[in-house]
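Input chain follows. Return structure tokens only.
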Amino acid sequence: MKPAASQSFYATNKNIINFILSLVIALVVTFLVKEPEFTQAQNDVLFLLVFSVLLWLTEAVSPFSVGLFIIAFLVYSLGFDVFTDKPQDISVFANTFSSSVIWLLLGGFFLASAMTKTKLDEDLINMTLKICGTNPKWILFGLMTVTMIASMLISNTATTAMVVASLIPLINKLGKESKTGKALLLGIPIAATTGGMGTLIGTPPNAIAVGALNNVGISMEFINWLKFGLPVAILLTFISWWVLVKLFMKVIEPIENESSTAKKGTDSQLKLQRNIVIGVLIVTLIMWLSSPLHGIKAAAVSAIPLVVLTLTGVLKGEDIRKMGWDTLLLVAGGLSLGIGLQETGLLSIYAERIATINVSDTVFLLILAYATMLFSNIMSNTATSTVLIPLGMAILPNMQLEVAMIIGLSASTALFLPVSTPPNAIVYSTGLIEQKDLRLGGTLIGLFGPALIVLWVLLVS
């Protein structure tokens, strides 16, 4: 009976035990890893990094609460002379709530909510079912393909939000425990993230890589990027689709394409709202696509759905309150952690030590690729690229093109945690999957992605 009682005690107090264990392990790791020349701020951020990752992995507390803890910890530990000898400007840690990523997320949430409210999401899923048939593996293939292509041109955050919104009716029909439904959900953030590799404007790390190359006199045009990023995006998406089918669709049951019984469009107010949402969607997409022409940032374009959908009454107070605000807190915390690692110089210290390893250029490129993937899982891939690309290019001056492309593309292979990428956060916010489910895509893309990128870039450069 004792083992059963012990198991019952752990089950009852699982979160408390995991929290305490995470705290103890973080303190021990910090004590063992820290070095005499580390500042107090660097020791604090090192502890915060280990503790936060452990909390996310053990699920001792809600992921968004870890995000709030990160921001509060950085503000107090680095911002006041009571806790540090050299107080820093705390606004850089607190202002992540207003970062461009948050605005992109919010714009995607508003579009997704409006599409759901006006039943446009059901139209999209019915269209997908009609094109792909009733076989779930081809439905998954169609959804992942559309998501990948869309993410090459527009924000993968907005793409994920819209595709997930269109999927919800089908997922509800299949049931929360359905393996097919889980495969459909897990395929979306994978395809959205890999799709970002395909074009120069697909994701911020791509632009950072191009900017770094321009600074050293190497030109990278839109069409040139395609030969590096597009094959990798297609191959990783296809491999992921195949794995999801093999793992979750061993027994394939057809999904019937049942049209909604609601007579949409018969109500004049609903018809007007649907037209407004379609108009906002088209304008927003065009503005996102043409951002290089008019110079308006994608985050600023997100103001269009925020303003128009609320002013016209398509979205009301109750709709806004139902949105995934906890996801925004989670992402803001992850951004703050990245800033803390960068501002204290902790990331630079370990990145420079990686560079001192005496290995061949190819092996070093692999190290850079996997380091980028690991860092991007726990902090902003934009911040990771900003630090590692110039560093790698300085260490390998004869391979600057290869370094920039490998790091830029590898920054999009981070999918292990909900905070690793906004598409992960969006899918997790549905409540239909658990954190551990995301580890499949994180492990698959994290293991094979960087190696494939290095091999392909070296082949075509």
